[in-house]
Amino acid sequence: MNTGKLVERIISLFRSNAKLWQGVPLINIYCLRLLYLLMFFVLGKDVWTYIFTHTGVWESNEAMAWSVWASFSLLAFLGILQPLKLLPILFLEISYKLIWLMMVAYPLWNSGTLAGSPAEGMTAAFVLVILPILFVPWKYVLKTYISVERQDV
């Protein structure tokens, strides 16, 4: 493959495909699929391993949290196939992680007690919320979920 064709293929990743992906650039679709793939495999491995190896009676709040994360991993599989249709699970992920970072991690960090605390590990994982924030096609989100188009009756 010559350099010109390679450059053209790379540039085509950043162009919108109005017919196939509703105007979302292909690079966003690939990035979304990567996010869903990571959720499916990384989160899924940890969650399902924990669920299947758990012994004893579940504490109700702990069981709820693990159930939600297990659901995320299953829905992420559908996101790999239909990245735009499953955007709401990324909205939920972004929301709960940002809220947790503001309510738990920031006060600990601000008081100088985050390092060495039980929240330190989760904070490190939750800071990666920057990835879905960067990869979500926000113009598409505004057009699809926020803007209200007038429909004649």
What can you tell me about this protein's structure?
This protein has helices at residues 3-12, 18-21, 26-53, 60-81, 87-110, 120-126, 130-135, 138-146. The mean pLDDT is 88. It contains eight helices and no strands. The longest helix has 28 residues, at 26-53. Helix 3 packs antiparallel against helix 4. The chain starts with a helix and ends in a 7-residue tail after the last helix. With 153 residues, the protein is an all-alpha fold.
Output the number of helix runs.
8
Question: Could you list the spans in which at least 5 consecutive residues all have pLDDT below 50?
Answer: none
**Rounded to an integer, what's the Rg over CA atoms?**
19 Å
Q: What is the molecular shape?
A: globular
Average pLDDT figure:
88
Q: What's the oligomerization state?
A: single chain
Query: Beta-strand percentage?
Result: under 5%
The span between the termini is: 54 Å
Let me know the largest β-sheet.
none
The SSE order reads: HHHHHHHH
Helix content: over 70%
Secondary structure: number of strands: 0
Tell me the structural class: mainly alpha
